[in-house]
Amino acid sequence: LAISDNVWPGVARQSFGGEAGPTSAPWLDSNGWYVQLARARSETPVWLIFDPPGASSVTPSQGYQTAVCDSESAGARWVISLDANLRSGLAEGNPTARQTLKQAGEAARFYRNHAEWKAFRSLGVVGVISDFTGENFETSGEILNLMARRNLQFRVIWKSQAMTKPFAGLKTLMYADREAPAPDLRRKMMTFVEQGGLLVTGPKWGAGGTPANPGFPTQFEVRSFGKGRLAVAREELSDPYQVAVDTQLLTSHANDLVKVYNSSSSGCSLFTGSSDGKKALLQILSYASGRSSGPRTVWVGRKYRSCRLWSIGADAPMPLEPSPSEEYFGMEYKIPQETPASFALEFEA
Question: What is the pLDDT of residues 112-140, one digit of tens each?
Answer without folding.
Answer: 999 999 999 999 999 999 999 999 999 99
